Amino acid sequence: MPAEKALALVVRTTDWSETSRIATLFTREFGRVRVLAKGGRRLKSNFETALDLLTVCSIVFLRKSSDSLDLLTEAQVSERFPSLRKSLPVLYAGTYIAELLSDGTQDYDPHPNLFNSVVEGLRDFGADGISTALRLASVEMVWLRELGYDPVLETCVHCRRLLHANEENLSFSAAAGGIICRNCQASQKDRLALRNETWNLLHELAQGKEVWRQEVSVRKRQELRRILGYYITYLLGHRPRLLPYLSSLSGHT
């Protein structure tokens, strides 16, 4: 069993025995890995507090050739995010991201760009001059793009007509994976109404623009949250457990 080294974000932990713990880690080098940390529950273990949720750590693990858990042998804290402990809405945002990585990625399917985006987002959550709601949405858009679910925003997914900047009466369909123009809505029952200004905000996020540094109305943030939550719920096949708690971000700076 070769030893592997990686930089990992702790996205889930479960007690395994009186002394050991199972951890789900999202690594930059290997994607999601699930490891057994023997002795991980002991107060003075080799892992100390490196397996705390949403901690970035440098790890060494033994990769198993079968479907059994990999064996974690070393874990040292590389970075923590203090802002997550100062605000409950910010903590909800961070924990929601952990849930997306744990439930919405595959074992040994690396996405280094997603890893970097998540870590940068966690650094920004709760910072002065940054909207955590919009910063979270930007991370979600990277998650969608990296997993091949980037929504179609520039054209109608049914008629393929190019949409103009002042387009009105739009809808978003999770099943179709994008925008439905006013003329095609009768053919798609699975849809949510989408105002022009929120569509433009989605488009800016998809382009990587730093809209989280701008003043954006509560109404737009609420509609954006509803659209992204609806789409991600459809893709996962279940509603994320933390999703209902994210509504508190709408009025959060």
Descriptors:
three-stranded antiparallel sheet, alpha+beta, 5 helices, de novo design (two linked rop proteins), five-stranded mixed β-barrel, 253 residues, OB fold (Dihydrolipoamide Acetyltransferase, E2P), 2 domains
Can you tell me about this structure?
- The protein has 253 residues and is α+β, with helices and mostly antiparallel strands.
- It folds into two domains: 77 residues, Nucleic acid-binding proteins (OB fold (Dihydrolipoamide Acetyltransferase, E2P), Beta Barrel); 168 residues, Recombination protein O, C-terminal domain (de novo design (two linked rop proteins)), CATH 1.20.1440.
- Helices cover 29% and strands 21% of the residues.
- It contains five helices and eight strands, in the order E-E-E-E-E-H-H-H-E-E-E-H-H.
- The strands form two sheets. Strands 1-2-3-5-4 form a five-stranded mixed beta barrel.
- Strand 4 and strand 5 form a beta hairpin.
In a few lines, what is going on in this structure?
The chain is an alpha+beta fold.
Query: Can you tell me the number of structural domains?
Result: 2
Shape: elongated
Low-pLDDT runs of 5+ residues are none
User: What is the fold named in CATH at topology level of the largest domain?
Assistant: de novo design (two linked rop proteins)
Helical content (DSSP H or I, runs of 4+): 25-40%
* Rg on CA atoms, Å: 20 Å
What's the CATH H-level homologous superfamily of the largest domain? Recombination protein O, C-terminal domain
Q: What is the string of helix and strand elements? A: EEEEEHHHEEEHH
What portion of residues belong to β-strands? 15-25%
Number of helices: 5
The main pleated sheet reads as: 5 strands, mixed, barrel
The largest beta-sheet arranges its strands as: 1-2-3-5-4
Overall pLDDT, averaged? 91
Q: What is the top-level CATH class of the largest domain?
A: Mainly Alpha
Structural class: alpha+beta
- How far is the first residue's CA from the last residue's CA? 48 Å
The tally of beta strands, per DSSP, is 8
> Under the CATH scheme, which architecture of the largest domain would be assigned?
Up-down Bundle
